[in-house]
Amino acid sequence: QVQLVESGGGLVQPGGSSRLSCAVSGFTLENYAIGWFRQAPGKEREGVSCFGGRDGATYYKASVKGRFTISRDNARDTVYLQMNDLKPEDTAVYYCAATEGIRTVQALCDMPSLGKHWGQGTQVTVSS
């Protein structure tokens, strides 16, 4: 049974940092592409950062590039999203998703519907 469980997040002050974790089970992490997505109230779900399975390629949404870092620990079956210099506009529910059979990790980030398996989400609120 495929499962993805996000943790981390919470309330963070502007300029602060937070690390999200996505623990996966039921599949081999390195065989899948993993993405972090977010959805703010009244907005569509958008790709934030995606990580390739076998090639380890990464992709970042322009607005988070230089501030967010995606990484993977195969031994722990966990994918992380380190978020620095957080801004109020980063406030959203953050989800991780896994998929296979995509050409590029950007494709996954550009089209969340390509995600096959999803976690339940974790809230990140950036506010003073």
What do you see in this structure?
A hairpin with a 6-residue loop joins strand 4 and strand 5 (46-51). With 128 residues, the chain is mainly β. 5% of the residues lie in helices and 46% in strands. Strands 2, 4, 5, 6, 9, 10 and 11 form a seven-stranded mixed sheet that branches. The model has no long low-confidence stretch (mean pLDDT 95). It is built from one helix and eleven strands; from the N terminus they run βββββββββαββ.
Q: How many distinct helices? A: 1
Q: What share of the residues lie within helices? A: under 10%
* End-to-end CA span: 40 Å
What integer value in Å does the Rg equal? Answer: 13 Å
**Total beta-strand segments:** 11
Give the overall shape, derived from the CA principal axes: globular
What is the H-and-E element order?
A: EEEEEEEEEHEE
Structural class: mainly beta
Average pLDDT level? 95
Approximately what portion of the residues adopt beta-strand conformation?
Answer: over 45%
Give the biggest beta sheet: 7 strands, mixed
Low-confidence stretches: none
Key structural traits:
128 residues, mainly beta, four-stranded antiparallel β-sheet, globular, 1 helix, seven-stranded mixed β-sheet
